[in-house]
Fold these 4 entries.
Entry 1:
Amino acid sequence: MSNFSVAFRDAGTATILAVCGELDAHTAPELESAIKKCRDEGKSHLIVNGSELDYISSAGLGVFMAFIEEIRTLGGDIKICALKPRIFDVFDLLGFPKIYHIVETEEEALSLFEQGIQPIQGD
Amino acid sequence: MGGVGETAPVSTTILHQAALAVCFLCLWITIARTTQNSHLPPVQIFWRTILTILAALVLVVLILHIPGLFIESQTPAAPIVHVKSALLSTILAGLGFILVQRFGQLVRFRRTRRSERNWFLMMLFVSLTFVTWAPLHHDDLESSPLVLTLAGFAVLAAIGSVVFIFLNTIRLAWILRLPVKQKMGTLGLGVVVICLTSATLLLLVPPFTFGPITEQSYPIYFLDFFSRPLTLVTVLFITFGFVYALTSVLSMIFHLPTIGDYQRSVDEMAAMQALTVLVREMADPEKLYHWVVSTPVDSGRGKAAWLTIRELESGSLKPQIVAAHNIEASLADDVCDVDAIHGEAARTRTLVSIQNTSSDRRIQNGKTSGIMSLLAIPLTTRTEVLGTLFVSRDVAHAFENEDIESIGVFASQATLVLENARLLEAQFERERLASELAIAHDVQRRLLPQTMPRFSTMSLAASSTAAQEVGGDYYDLLELGDGKLAFIIADVSGKGTSAAFYMAEMQGIFQAVAQIAPDPHDFLRHVNKALGRSLEKNVFVTAIYGVLDCNSGAISIARAGHPPAAFVDVTGRTMLLRSGGLGIGLDRSELFAQTLEVKQHVFNPGDLIALYTDGVTESRNPEGEEFGYDRLLQSIQSARYERAQGVHDAVLQTVDQFLGAEKKYLDDLTLLIIKWHGPEPATHDAEDDPLL
């Protein structure tokens, strides 16, 4: 049933969360606890690699919203990369690209962190 | 004992006997050590007793055949006589000790305070017999009043011993619990024990020799020569063995005809009891728990009992004592580390038996609290451990295999009852929840428009289906006066009850705010501000809101993160209106207002707009394929000549066909169609009609 997984990988100062499968109301808690774990370990530069993400529901999108404020307060960010076009469309419809850095590749996301480019958000 | 002629001083006799007493006490303790730790079934006890008696008899006969007779008149006695008498005394006293301790295990089967007391008193009187007889020299009986008094006590002690031997030999509780086959075996062995003990007694006490003591080969004379008090004790103990075997055999014979009935009635009673409980107490967990703890105590298997249950609802992993019988729950909790014992029982899924609580770290002050032996039985179902039943007794080593088995059987029965009760409770809960949800469903239905407003210039059709009883989809229409109509479609992220609450909030906001701030930009900005306060961090709402001029067909529309509205014009041209706008709740700053775009359009007759939630486009067929935008646009396009209701039905029909036979909506699904027919086609017709 649960065809979703999160894998951790360190890349310099950032932590890459490679998500795989379907992120819906049932699997959202997995990503939630993964991000919580990073936060508790003091890792706030997070890159979610969605190259293997096949589906995302509104509950899945909610996970990003739940933590972004906190992570940014800690001086970090959640950046999203390598989304499949169909998944990007879901993020895009909702206006996520206005609030989150959503980029093509992990390298881009990493360089955004390295350059210290702040997210676009208004406040 | 010295000879007749010379009288040893009383003090020497006392000293001599005291030394003997110490030696034989050591023997007693040694035997006690070896027999106490082995808890044998009755058949084994009888069997070993037979072997012991046989061995003792063989030794006695062999020793008696050593030349050197006891001659009363011959003083001082020959050394060989001393050796023979010491050996015979030791062997026979040892036999007596073994008999008492072996049968003692049977006597104290399912011991009670009373049986413990009787046993203790028997031992006390026998010891007193030894002690009071010790200073007596049979030749000095008349010599002093002190000795006379002592003799009186000695007689009393001997009588007391006999009385308590009798009282203890009628404790035969173990027979009742014995399986039929073992009962038969024990009966046979019991008869052998009777023969052997009586033979030993006959050997000891010459039945027909009461004459003057002369040259004798009877061991009793050797024993008496060695120590008269010890001889008394030995005779008392072997007599005890004989009488106990006798009462056991008789009792078993009397029980034989009723064995079958007894077993059946026990089983039936247990079954009936469980059944009654099942029917009556199921609904009341308190009563059920009480039944679980009181049954082992009432059946006499335990002195006190308590039950711990791990309450999953309360979320605490520590098991709580939910019921206690014959003991205060708080006391049980203080004395025992309930958590640790429950933990072990739950982990191993087997019974934890603590035969002596004073040597177990997890029990403190067991003795003062009357918890000397303790059983902890996990109540295990196939999938989980419901709790642990604790049964305690106030004596150490009080639980026989029998008790443990019986309590174990009861525990599994109790588990069944408790689990059934839980399932029933869960069923009630489900039904209650279902009726609550049915009410919520009705309430939510009423938040949606009950009827569609009617206009001459356009037709409207809408529907909303929740995946569960309640959902997070919302659509609504509101006539603003001055010929304008506000419309909205919204989707709260997530499903179910929490989404339904936000949906209700959305309805309130729409009805109120659309009146005062009908402009799409103003309206959505207000909504974002109002909902932003109450939405949880990970919840958002997507919406499309618009205002349509019912006279001119001018439409002003904005999208807040919602799937784009579909426009289809009369020629079949389709377009997804994908204007900028964040989902409501995504951003609580000015970014929301900054990014929100409002689109203006003027309808031509035949144009239609379809608003829908992602339940439509993300519907998946059994193959996992999504319905998608193309199928949606196509289905609208091919039905574009229909009125709104026709288009609406066509789209839903296409979705249903796509989903296949199961037609199971995984998400809330809402569709709103507004079709513009143009101003006054009826008037136009009328103008053309010459009849009017």
Entry 2:
Amino acid sequence: MAKRIDVSGLSAFYGNHKAIDDISMTIEPRSVTAFIGPSGCGKSTFLRTLNRMHEVTPGGRVEGKVLLDDENLYGANVDPVAVRRTVGMVFQRPNPFPTMSIFDNVAAGLRLNGTVKKSELGDVVERSLKGANLWNEVKDRLNKPGSGLSGGQQQRLCIARAIAVEPQVLLMDEPCSALDPISTLAIEDLIGELKERFTIVIVTHNMQQAARVSDRTAFFNLAAVGQPGKLIEIDETERIFSNPSVQATEDYISGRFG
Amino acid sequence: MSHVIQDRPVRSATPATLTRGGLPRWAPAGIAALSAALGCGIGLAADLHSKVQWGLLAAILFVLITYTASSVVENRRQAKDRVATSMVWVCFVLAVVPLLSLIWTTVSRGLKVLDAYFLTHSMKGVVGFQPGGGVYHALLGTIEQVLLATLIAAPIGLLTAVYLVEYGRGSLAKAVTFFVDVMTGIPSIVAGLFILTTWNLMLGFGPSGFAGSMALAILMMPVVVRSTEEMLKLVPNELREASLALGVPKWRTILKVVLPTAIGGIATGVMLAVARITGETAPIMLLVFGSQLINNNPFEGAQSSLPLYIWEQYKVGSADSYDRAWAAALVLIAFVMILNLVARGIARWKAPKTGR
């Protein structure tokens, strides 16, 4: 199910502006890797290069290699649509499709790709909603619009939608930043369960969250505003938070940043 | 030297008390009634003929009395606020009065001959200045021509807007936007003459409803492009990204996520464009030619249409033809209004749902 990600020498641009510079790292399968760092340091941009969503932004451009097991995502004949089916994504703000019901939202990826028979759709939807810990809350109103749910429920709906297409890797871009502590806890628990099946990469501004959910943590920083963001270090989460090898990491984590 | 500044007393921004004098809740209504009465009174006393002058007097008095009363009883800030509010009301009334007057005139004069017979018969064998006859052939012509024009213009306009919003980058998109803007300004008679020279004179076709539809489509297209473009721009980018991140190809994302989210607004925009072309007379006059008989086939032979019928009947100049013209005008207004209601229904039915 889950795949290893191997990034080497990756830089990303917006037009002529270099947003991240020469990043190399390895992300282990069936683990949670957290990205932390100040705003504008390129965490989200880097995350979006991992499923070729960066190039959706006008002017977005990438140099370098991202190997998924042994396949380069930026190779010559790679279809970005196929990449995104393999590497799913959950966004910062919950974004269920407003014209669709809860059921249709979860089924959207499968239905729009035409990969699943109608009879199996119900099972997949139930499995995905159970996987996202949302089934018990919505099973009686699957035909109601998804936008009627609370923020935390909507975000879990989006997670259900992402895992319904059975990706290998799940990217999460600050999935809890718009949510209250209880919904955040629900999502964090969910991440713990999901890592049994998926490789998870999560961007977060909340360092306690990174410490709670992740196995490995990567710290990003930028030299100054307008400069490209860089990977400072990546290590076991415990080490990053107790005894990081770079001074800047310790400054950031202990709040002595800047 | 350095102590001079400190000696100056500082005026505090905090008011001494939080309460203030206030006009009663009914004051705006009272002032409106008073100024209306005054306007009529002055109008009568000064022997002003036009009722429009009475109304304008009342409007000016309304603003003035509001300002005076408020600045005496309340304070200046409150007075300015009330003046702004009263101006908005005056402008609203000024905008609504012509509309109501138009509807009233059309309905009161149009109802005289409007009945089932009028709606189901043509002008066949009816002499222009005599009573009788009906509007069926013109109504049929309008429906067919507008339908054909919509079938031509709506898909082209929709696809153009999708191109501009979802794909268009660089000089081609800029050029398309520019020419759509230019098209918006084309007078209807020019669109009619264009089709007349190409379709009728160069290619040698006779007058037909279809020729008129093509001219109407030219007028309709830029309106559809513009309104659809605005609606598509309103669709949040997050929805597109959510769909793309699920591994849905871009064209399916547009078809299944973007367009359904915007369909309500798009339908309204198309209907507004339809309403705009339904009242066009000039291209119909040139290309459809007008007819007193029922012609079901929009692709061959002259047809009629409601605006053209109104013009023809008014030109005859007898009391009976005037009645028919007003009744046809009422039918035209009702036709457009029904289309608008249908569009609103579609928009409400298809709009993104928020219920629990």
Entry 3:
Amino acid sequence: MGLLDPFLLEALVNGILLGGVFALPALGLNLVFGVVDVVWLCYAELVMVGMYAVWFLHTQAGWPLALAFAACLPVVALLGVLLHLLVVRPLLNSPPINQVLATGGVLFVLQGAATLVFSTEFRSLGVDMPPMEVGEVFVSGTKLAAFCAALLGAAILWAFLKFTYVGTAIRAIARDREVMPLMGVDPRRIYLIASAVGGALAGLAACLLVVQLDVHPFVGLSFGPITFMICVMGGLGNMLGGFLAAFLMGLIISVGGFWGTTEFSYVVAFAFFILVMFLRPQGLFAR
Amino acid sequence: MQTRGTPRRGLLQAGAGLGLAATVPAQPRAQTAPARGGDPLRIGVMTDLSGPFAGAGSVPLFNGAEVAIALFNERGGVDGRPVAAVSADSQSKADVAINEAERLLGQEGLEVVTGIYSSAHAVPLSGRFEAARKMMWITSAIATAVLKDKHFRYVFRPTVHSDQYAEGTVSVVAENAQKRLGMAPEKVKLAVIYEDGPYGTGVSTAIEANAKKRNMPLVLKEAYSATTPDLSTLVTKLRRERPDIVYQVGYNPDITLFLRQARSGGLRFRMLFGHGAGWSQIDKLWDTFGKDIQYFCNADPAATQMLDWEKLQPGVGDLARTFVERYSAKHQVRDLPPHASMGFNNTWIFLEHVLKPAVRKSGGMTAEALREAALQVDIPLGGTIQGYGVKFEPPESAMAGQNSRSICVVMQFRDGKSHVIWPSQIGQEPVLPLPPENPYALRS
């Protein structure tokens, strides 16, 4: 089995595309943590709410899919703002464990609320794109489109943070939370904006995931825990680190599964994570 | 427009009931008929009303049990004493199932708990019930490992076990290989992918053993987590091995994920066999995939509407009809999932053939009396709405507590409904291989 083995090549491509699935949530989670210094344990559940929003608007309300996608972003951004105002802000000066427990509580509230409103049924958008076939290598059209959208989303975020005044303020707060208020930056406003952007990224992730996974109240279990692992591995609060770690993790899982078994690939991924925590506890890409 | 699955209000009620059950002792939930006198006979009903298992058959299992208890009470209960169900939601988590069992046995003081959807829960719970000398009446969890070589005295399972699934799905291929596939059975390449809990492991191990017995090559056998976000690499490996037949043992999110990724990954086969759980939720699968899953097969105990009720024992057909009418009126489904029949049937067997004689004989309801009554049950073939009879293996048997007369059938999806194709004596002719117009059909 050489490197030109088409099946190995396909596994590599799958790994990169899988990384794209993890990258956006990792980016959003890291943005919020980097700025507000609070881990949103319920981040995957915000994505779940966004997936339900798209499903409902498209299949129940009859909106065109593009419009449902467009609406999903502000909906989840608003949820991010509400989460900050109602749960995070009152606990900003509390011990970190209180903040984690509070956002963990929101996780259960959102799961329970989704169960009550939508029941435990698995909802499908019923949208699929034809695969691309290059020789013996198959590439999922849906995953490829989602991957491209993830890259585009990440590029827009980068441009926002790099070239706008608010973006600069966000980066500055992330770098030094104590000093920036002395320079005229209102941290409360920046926290709110970061929460909205973090929510919008969850909304974008929802748009990409809803075409790949069925929606149900516990769908966050599929990608939530691994997203946290990726964030920690890349360096919690380090957006670029989390983004790169997502692709690394995707490749480990995919190629590990190809050479070994699907279960083995996760053993390798978690073993690698533990190793990183021993050797670089601050994260692989932390400066 | 028809609504499908669990209505929101029903689930709200279930949730409220669960909340009450957690805080208020002895809140009956599933008892819906008026009592006619006498103290209620309290039994536990534990299923997964939330979490991933809820959408993979556990909710219909609960709904079926609910109909059974209501009907039993309407018909007078046990000499006027109604049955009051104390429900528990194990939330698709083994630790919650264990805690809820402790509550039902300790705080509620129950002598028997029925239900138990998942084998992953049944394995740890069975030991706990045996130690406590309280009866566990399993209506769904099918892993052979729950009972095998355990010699339990208080754990009973009227439904099928995982070895029977494999016997069915491998037999269908072996019996039809030459005639329909044009291949000797020894040439048919099999692959099995399965969720990595006791359910998937049990069925896949039995498939491997059955294939080996028939000299059929198993080219891939691989486990995955039911909550995995990606199965595309597994699809790639399946494509590399080019199996003729794919066996999947899964719940629900993993089934739909696999089918989607199999299609986008170019995987093709001659036939795919599911093995209950998520594969038995035909309405949902059909809504999601439509004709793409036309002629796919699935193994499970038969849903009662698939059987010819005239051929059942006297009176059983009427019971089946009553159940189907009531269930359909309340839940409005196109095709009742097997789990609805399992919930009703196995609860009914308990109420009518175990609880009633035990209470009549002992005057009360103790686990010991229930156990003795269970060992006396002797229902012939065709004596239950799912067609099978009931006779439990005694404690000295390797499969103590297992119903030795349970039957698993293999069914095929045709236009949104399931039809029995095996055992061949009672089944229709199978469509095998998948016709060329099917997007998953192997190109010859």
Entry 4:
Amino acid sequence: MAQVDRQQWDVVVVGAGGAGLRAAIEARERGARTAVICKSLFGKAHTVMAEGGIAASMGNVNEGDNWQVHFRDTMRGGKFLNQWRMAELHAKEAPDRVWELETWGALFDRTPDGKISQRNFGGHEYPRLAHVGDRTGLELIRTLQQKIVALQQQDFKEYGDYEARLKVFQECTVTRVLKDGEKVSGAFCYERETGRFFVLEAPAVVLATGGIGKSFKTTSNSWEYTGDGHALALLAGAPLLNMEFVQFHPTGMVWPPSVKGILVTESVRGDGGVLRNSEGKRFMFDYVPDVFKEKYAQSEDEGDRWYEDPDNNRRPPELLPRDEVARAINSEVKAGRGSPHGGVFLDVSTRMSAETIKRRLPSMYHQFKELADVDITAEAMEVGPTCHYVMGGIAVESDTAATVGVPGLFAAGEVAGGMHGSNRLGGNSLSDLLVFGRRAGLHAAQYASALAAPPAVSQAEVDAAAAEALAPFHADDGAENPYTLHQELQTTMNDLVGIIRREGEMAEALERLRGLRARAARAGVEGHRQFNPGWHLALDLRNMLLVSECVARAALERTESRGGHTREDCPSMERDWRPVNLLCRLLEPAPADGPDADRIRLERTRTEPIRPDLLALFEKDELAKYLAEEELYE
Amino acid sequence: MATGTDLPPSHRPPRAGGVHGPSRAAIAARHLRTDRWWLSPAGTAAGLLAFIAYSTWRAFANADYYAAPYVSPFYSPCLAENCKEMRGGPNLDVFGSWWGLSPALLILIFPLGFRLTCYYYRKAYYRGFWASPPACAVAEPHTAYTGETRFPLVLQNLHRYFFYAALPVAGILTYDTVLAFRNDRYEWGHMGLGTLVFLVNIVLIWAYTLSCHSCRHIIGGRLKHFSEHPVRYRLWGWVSRLNARHMQLAWASLISVALCDLYVYLVASGAFTDPRIF
Amino acid sequence: MTTYDARFRIWRGDAEGGGLRDFTVEVNDGEVVLDIVHRLQATQASDLAVRWNCKAGKCGSCSAEVNGRPRLMCMTRMSTFSREETITVTPLRAFPVIRDLVTDVSFNYSKAREVPAFVPPPGVAAGAYRMQQVDVERSQEFRKCIECFLCQDTCHVVRDHEENKSAFAGPRFLMRVAELDMHPLDAAAGEGLDRKRTAQEQHGLGYCNITKCCTEVCPEGIKITDNALIPLKERAVDRKYDPLVWLGNKIRRRSQP
């Protein structure tokens, strides 16, 4: 029997990125004693990598903007697969969430009349992104972090203890969400520094763990993005929604190899950067899909004029939604018109002065100078697609962020599905974190306080979790190296379930995943439990394998191309697929025929019909391009 | 090749304070820098020492500081009765005849105080002379450190008053430079090589004085809202640009003031004749 | 693509002790020190402890000392070394070591808590904040900080004098005080909090002897000394060493019963 330390909290938030911290702030302000638990140091979350800005229709730069326009852009970007109620709440609440940051000390760039400045971004009709140079994510994280500290300072004044009502457990990992019957009862965790196990007992758990990018070889995501929250939810009995939709950001660095995948912000294009192939051609004009034909410039001249006069010109096609641009780059490279290192050229040097580039894109300038020895004020960057974001995620109730079917479990941010449909617009992730982070914290706190008695954590469950976590230390001879397994998984997903997908390849991926699952069961590590990265990776492998299976299985099932899911064998978007959601559920109990057996089953559900007043925001003609036949006549 | 965690018995260095404290990573070396980190503090110390030696000699010499129309910046303004007669020059008998020492000592105290408390020179001599620290990430030899929290170093906070004093001094040196547009018969409208030396020196002196961190603060740095003080904001911007070069200006003006004095010395002692331009 | 074998010496151990261990490891074109550490983990020392996250110089996790200089491992390119050179990597030497390249940086988090937070201006609703770009730029520079704590590590005030840790906030958090004091809407003064005074009296500004190592190591290129610490010192002078202010305070205090 494992002797582990137990602590009691009202709300446990897993993850300390934008969504997690916003949830924790809300829960604590609603009176819940709140614990935040995160794998890295406090303030290092992946949110700091977000560069462009926070989308919110404040209308500071163009007064024509409002929540309806933002909602429309979001639905178009997501190809109408979005959970429309989430898109609605998001568009309505984003401005308040941004303004609130200012009252906590955030310093955004300003307009001449002293308001928050807003910039253009792909898929957004108006300049909408509140930003700070190209380090908006850092500003967001730091502001939330400092707000948490401010709340702790209040508690210190009141109770003499900074951590009386809000505590951050940094460098700790959750391996299991614990349950008492149907209900959540806590989380099983280990401290990375010491390897010590502990249990946080809590009636409400908010998952805010971010994405799954580390299952792919070329990714802009950090090591933390191993799909922990997705896997924790699955294992706790909650379904994942539309996991086939993985966003490949069109512009990641392609050289040198060690930085391949690191993000080149979309602001580069928003501020005037153009894409060219090896023949010097601005190829994006050849890739404007029919549904967007009327919204984008048809000539280079018109596109150029748009930067100065957006009201009388259409925007250049470099600013199409990310999925379109990523596919276009992929096609150019495949056709042999790529750059020397297998990307295309992204050039700002011909459009902006060196001074302007350094002022508006300081960290891009810095990043290329330091990591690739390229001066972007004088030469073009080489860029190519990189795995960036997963639109799919835990299925949640739109208003409460509660997961479907597991009382007490909430999810917000990238780990939650639905909000972005099949493709996310740039800038919508930071606002998503704030809007639904707050909602998750609010409803978790309400749920916790409404519960008569806290659910209990059973010793058997704790023992099972401890045994599972210790398994890599008991591997027999011939143990598998977790690093090797991880690399093979990344290659499999990148090559077979990557940006362009084919039926045969995905079937092969599922086959390889079976093999990897069997080998992962034998993963072994050396050394001891104190800060042992090999052990940590061995535990994360379970999550990555589960999530990868979901992605591959859902991708194989959806026989169309839409947003972040492109099938070479089914190249067009099918209106009949519009109202179809694919849910992944864990097979329970685990199949008896060994560790390589499939763990996931798929389930098709129908989306909730879009509310008529929201549908009325679109032209009939446009709806006809997206909605299934029967939806149009309802 | 090392693998696993079976570390050979570690050779613990004798533990003491700082980087050798008991909780820190056990590394015996005071530093592991492989570059020539000692070059910069050594160069700084050598440069400052050279200036101190030269200026001490010249300040106490009480001779060869005036060669019409040039007065050495070390002796200007000259404020005692024992000053040399300088026609039109800034020699005012403020202290009278009781002052028997070199008149340079009366006035040098101000530029000396200004430079001694200067934020750049502080860095230079704390590193070069005090080894506190000798270079970044190189352990300093002192066992205790209180920085500028106590007497006498708390007096560094008086820098801005020396800055105020440095302004009239720079003004007088400017006046001296104007006077240098005379010939040795005090006729206006002439220039010699010395005039150029004086011109370069006074430009550097002003640039150094105005690039001072205290000046930057007083001009505009202390404001909370630049937008409400557009003129001061613009001035602050200029001073800030100069301030970024404060180190270079500190050295350049230190060298130029010494060269200026040396030039006067050479002319006054007859070792050299000032070439006239017109 | 060219490849060669490089010699590394990496500190391994924990609070009980440890030492520099030699490794020979492959290096490819365009790699950084962190890539090499990862290769060692994958091939020779799976339990080599190291912190890292973004690998793009944005999160400030992979701080260490490379050839004795505090640096981000992800931003230290191998091409800056010669092939013959032995590259030494150690944990930050100002903080307690946990294991291998990982140190206990809790000092910084406790200092962060000691700086009173932003005080919102009373009576200004969210959404009604108006600030001019020129007024926010100074604080924005300080908010570029990625909290890698290299400045805290290199600062001799605490690096060489453990006993000063309680009294001295370190460059990072003195800069935070400066950031708040320069924030155009911070209303701390209205609540009786004088940040200029507390910088010196509570956060140890006087310990700083402006030797600029913090600025030298900052991977974000923030001019910590010139733009934060010295202006803060000057602001403290305004409060504490200005004879007119001092006299005024004396008189006011006397006139109060």
